Structures are given as structure tokens and as C-alpha cells.
Amino acid sequence: MGDKVSIILTSYNKPDYLQKAIESVINQTHSNWELFVMDDHSNEETTAVIHKYLYDHRIHYKNSFVHPQHRLKTTRYATLINDALPYATGDYISYLTDDTVYHPNRLSRMVQTFLCHPEAQAVYSKQKVVHVNERGEEMSHFYRNANTVLDQAAFQVDHCSVMHRRLLLDRIKDKYGSYWDDDMKHWNHGDSIFWLRVNTFAPFLPINEVLDTTYKTPNSFQNAFQFLPADLIDGTFVKGSDQHVYFLDQGVRHPVGERWRSVYLDRTVIIPDPYLFQYHMGKCLNIPNYVLVKEADRPAVFYIDAGKKRRIESQHAFQFYQFKRKDILTIDKEVLESLPEGPPITRERSGVIANPPGRRLFFIERERFLFLHGVFHPISEQVVRKFFLQQKPIPASFRNIQQFPIGKPFYPVYDEIIKNLNIAIE
Ligand code: UDP
Ligand code: MG
Hints:
With 426 residues, this protein is an alpha/beta fold. Among the domains are: 218 residues, Spore Coat Polysaccharide Biosynthesis Protein SpsA, Chain A, CATH 3.90.550.10; 55 residues, no CATH class. The protein has 14 helices and 22 strands. Strands 1, 2, 3, 4, 5, 6, 7, 8 and 9 form a nine-stranded mixed β-sheet that branches. It has a five-stranded mixed β-sheet with strand order 13-10-11-12-14. A four-stranded mixed β-sheet has the order 17-16-15-18. The protein is elongated, with a radius of gyration of 26 Å. The model has no long low-confidence stretch (mean pLDDT 92). The protein binds uridine-5'-diphosphate and magnesium ion (MG). Magnesium ion binds next to loops. Pfam families: Glycos_transf_2. InterPro entries: Glyco_trans_2-like, Glycosyltransf_2, Nucleotide-diphossugar_trans. This is Spore coat polysaccharide synthesis.
């Protein structure tokens, strides 16, 4: 048996990191490898990086040219890996993402381990995980250990810390009908779903040495995916990997102009691109919903709700609905006049909540609710933290909101998926 390693590198719009990833393969002490750079229709800056390395005959490149509408249909990296695997000629297979670097002895240590353990089918190593900020500076780091033989590697071992024998692939395909399961619902843990398949044939042998470093950027899927509900909340400022800020409104993402910068600056939620692409592109908004505005020389304060301006009738109502003066934006008379008038926002003496402002957070009998489009939705604390950093919940009782329906909850979808998989996570 030989010692050739096939490496499948998946890439999407991370030119700087990608360059480091490719160079980390070129710098391996073990030189018998082939690298498949599977690019998922990245920007030109990224493909230009790839082209710089194609002089090396060991490096193969394929662009998926995926259409934006199809991007959200599968777990993309799993789809790309499945496309590459039939061409792999190595004795061993190893995976790499564009935000990870292999340490120079990564391949040699793993191949050595296989040579010493002819019965082994899969090995994994210790990993350094570095969290970086938007400027690429290290904020913190930790290690994922590799000191036990794993019968269940799912949710323990990262995508980039594994090598397995190529022959195992045939057995996996025979049993499951495909190599990697690229169902969209596994986007955040497609590697773990593949490890489950590997584990039905063999355990993972540990190599207790750090052989790769992975970088978690604010845009990384895991960060972006964390605490995200299945349906995004209307009225959120979001951005995907291209850094453009959009305002979400009922299936449409509206680009927002610079003039709303002070509003969206500290409340833009980073979301994964597939979520973003589900929204049609709308027109640039004159004025987004759910902001507080007033004219320069007039005291009246309005809340923009469903495209209408709603006057906040009293100081009492302003305070009750937890609005803050610092959030009031002064806008031109003409812009305000162009908006139709909605019902005023009032505070009834009886305590009944008659016509509350939209997209406000309530605290009702120890539970959090979000009032949106006329419905009270239960919402988890984690989703609140991700979407409503600054609003204090409005205290209320079920009696006072009884004319409104209770809708579908906003809970993190990832937790639900894990629960349904029914596997223990440490
Ligand atoms: N990826 C892809 N297509 C996409 C988005 C991501 O092929 O539309 C690849 C990306 O290049 C990387 C892997 O999927 O190799 C995981 O993505 P990311 O690093 O953003 O996720 P995380 O580090 O949070 O798991
Ligand atoms: Mg990553």
C-alpha cells in the first residue's frame, strides 16, 4: 500500500485565509499528496488566489458555479466534497476548510499512524481553535483534545482534524447511497453526520498533537448560525459574508443606505448566506420599520410600524413600551410627511394593551414574547440576546393581551436538530 493523501479543500469567499490554507498543504513535509480546491463560486479575489497555485500539478481546481438560488438547497461543502471524492486517487482522504491551516507535519504524522496501525480506518488529531475579530486579530483560543479512541466522533472532532482510508468510502456509499450527507439541515454539522457514518465501520484513533489550527471569524457559519431561529425575525438588520447591510421585511431584503448607519451599527445580526439568499432583493429603503423618528423643530415622536408613522401619544406610553430617547432620529419633514399615518401608540388606564407597537419584546408571566404582525410569539432568551440586545421587555399579563393570538415560537433551530438526532453531546 502507498502513502498518497487526497485533500479536499472547500472554499468560499475567504481569499486571505484560503491562501494560508493552500500554502499549509504545499508546506507539508510529506509530499505525496493531491489537493482538490473545490470553490463554491467565490468572488474574483478568491479565484485569483487559487489560480496562483495551479502551476503545481498536484493541485486540481473546480468551480461549482452554483447559482445563488441553489446555494441554500444543500450543505454546500458536503456537496463539493461528494463531487471531488470520485476523482481522489490517494490511499488516504483528508478534509480542509478555507479558514484552517494544517501544521507542516500533519500528513506525515497521520500516515505514520496508519502504517503503525494497519487495522485503523480513521485517525484524528488535536486542534487549536482561534477566535478572531473582523480585523483578523486573535481574541481567544482553545484546544480540541485528541486523547481517546472515539466510537462516536460526531460533535467531538472537527472537519479538518481527520484522515481516513479511501477504501472506507466504498463501504459508506454501499450502505448509505452517498459519501457525505449533504441535506441542508446539517449545514452546521455535516462533518459530524459523516463521522456517524464512518463510526458504523470503525472507531477514530487519536493523535494527541496539534496538527491543525482553525480560525473562527465573526462570519463563520457556526457563529452566524448560533441561536438562529428557523424563521428570521422581520425588521432585523442583517449581513452575510459580503458585508452589505440589509433590512429584512416579509421575505424581502432591502439594502440600507449609509444614513441609517447609526441605527444599524450596533444591531446588525450576522447571518449565514443561505439564510440571506432566501430573501428576494428589494429596493433601497427610504426609512426602515421599527425606528423612532421626529422632525427637527417639533416635539412629536413617531414609531414607524408596517410602513406607517404612529405617533406616541404620551410620555407614559413612551416609557411603558420601553422606548429610549437616544434612539430617536431626526428626519426631514418631507420624508415624514410622505408616510401614511397609522393608529397612535397609547397607554390605556385599564392596563389593556390595545394596539401595541410592532416588534417589541414583552415579559408575560415569566416568559418572553415578541409582538410581531399582530401575534405574540414566545421567544427564547438566546434568540432575544442575538436580536434584541438593547430593548428591555415590557411587563404585561395574559389578561391584558387576551385579544391577540399566541404564535409560533422563535427558538434556536440548531438545538432542535441536535435533539432530533438523539446523540449525546459532551
Ligand atoms: N462553504 C461553501 N459554500 C458556501 C459557504 C461555505 O462551500 O456557500 C464552505 C466554506 O468554504 C468552508 C465550509 O463550507 O470550507 C464551512 O464554512 P465556514 O468556515 O463559514 O463555517 P464554520 O467555520 O462556521 O463551520
Ligand atoms: Mg470555518
